[in-house]
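Practice problem 4.
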């Protein structure tokens, strides 16, 4: 086949942490995911009159007649992937780095060659997920009435004599609002698993616990339509669409985690959950909203209030609205819900504790306090202290 030379915009797409994300999947599962991804990318490329030249594992090489078409395509790909995967568990998310350069390229035997191709590979190494980076020459040819860019400064790349300006394409992702059951899940006494007194600490046990914790949360969310919104150290922020799914998740989690601790002769790393209906927002890698703090506060109170209620084991401390909704969904089991009638502590009476909680809530919400109180424990497998 004879060589063909032409001036083209060159796009390279690459999946973030592809090997890490999919190393535990079967070849068939990976093939299915990548086939769907290729079809998605192909549809976008066709829309903007581009051409997929080749695929290299999780990466695609694509050419366009002009830079503006390439950037238009890249932007649409990034926005739709974000909308599709925001709030999904990380191991199931496809996040792309996209790079666009421009130059004279050679087509030969189903492949492309040229300085623009080499430069795209170099720029890809500094490109974060969810972003579109373009070369200096691509920026010069981009229609600025349609797109704006930010100069990220000069970079030295292998094979380039001089430093080259790299630009980021400016476009906006929108926050996604989850108006559902918000759950703050936290492993108690997590620091007991960490020994940093030694210069070279052994994290084998820590990693064992975190891996299993992560696995059963992810599996449970996948089975019962939950969403992992974020992780904070040993805590998860989750969302569920209804009380029935939440209860099923907790019952399965409780059984698995209790057995895991029992097999390790561990009585301290129990789980606490703080839960209530609320609104929370997800933007890129950030999760925010006042309900996170409220549910975290409720979960933190659980260990003390468990003692007051003479209970032990993994527990979920939930708002009154959860109880009322469980009755509406016909999943209320009186033996599993225990009302917290005494919120007192060493420093506050019950009345003072309720008043303080009400003040905290009213700083952030307009809801009546009855939306939250009285708090109730939901314990999948309750055990009374002997």
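Answer key:
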């Amino acid at each position: 086949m004879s060589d063909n030379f032409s001036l083209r915009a060159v796009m390279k797409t690459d999946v973030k942490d592809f090997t890490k994300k999919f190393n535990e999947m079967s070849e068939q599962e990976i093939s299915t995911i990548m086939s769907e991804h290729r079809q998605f990318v192909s549809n976008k490329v066709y829309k903007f009159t581009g051409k997929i030249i080749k695929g290299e594992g999780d990466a695609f090489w694509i050419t366009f007649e002009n830079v503006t078409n390439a950037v238009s395509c890249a932007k649409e790909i990034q926005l739709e992937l974000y909308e599709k995967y925001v709030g999904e568990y990380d191991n199931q998310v496809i996040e792309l780095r996209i790079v666009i350069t421009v130059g004279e390229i050679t087509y030969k035997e189903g492949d492309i060659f040229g300085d623009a191709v080499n430069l795209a590979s170099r720029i890809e190494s500094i490109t974060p997920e969810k972003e579109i980076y373009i070369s200096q020459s691509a920026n010069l040819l981009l229609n600025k009435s349609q797109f704006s860019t930010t100069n990220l400064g000069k970079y030295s790349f292998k094979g380039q004599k001089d430093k080259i300006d790299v630009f980021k394409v400016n476009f906006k992702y929108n926050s996604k609002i989850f108006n559902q059951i918000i759950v703050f899940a936290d492993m108690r006494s997590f620091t007991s698993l960490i020994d940093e007194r030694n210069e070279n600490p052994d994290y084998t046990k820590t990693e064992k616990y975190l891996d299993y914790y992560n696995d059963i949360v992810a599996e449970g969310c996948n089975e019962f339509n939950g969403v992992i919104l974020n992780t904070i150290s040993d805590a998860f922020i989750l969302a569920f669409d209804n009380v029935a799914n939440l209860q099923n998740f907790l019952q399965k989690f409780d059984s698995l985690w209790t057995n895991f601790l029992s097999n390790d002769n561990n009585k301290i790393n129990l789980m606490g959950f703080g839960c209530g209906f609320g609104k929370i927002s997800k933007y890129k890698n950030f999760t925010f909203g006042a309900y996170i703090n409220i549910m975290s506060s409720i979960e933190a109170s659980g260990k003390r209030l468990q003692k007051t209620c003479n209970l032990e084991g993994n527990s979920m401390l939930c708002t009154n609205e959860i109880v009322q909704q469980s009755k509406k969904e016909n999943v209320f089991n009186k033996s599993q819900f225990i009302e917290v009638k005494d919120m007192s502590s060493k420093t506050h009476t019950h009345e003072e504790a309720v008043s303080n909680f009400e003040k905290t809530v009213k700083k952030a919400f307009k809801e009546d306090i009855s939306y939250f109180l009285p708090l109730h424990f939901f314990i999948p497998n309750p055990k009374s202290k002997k």
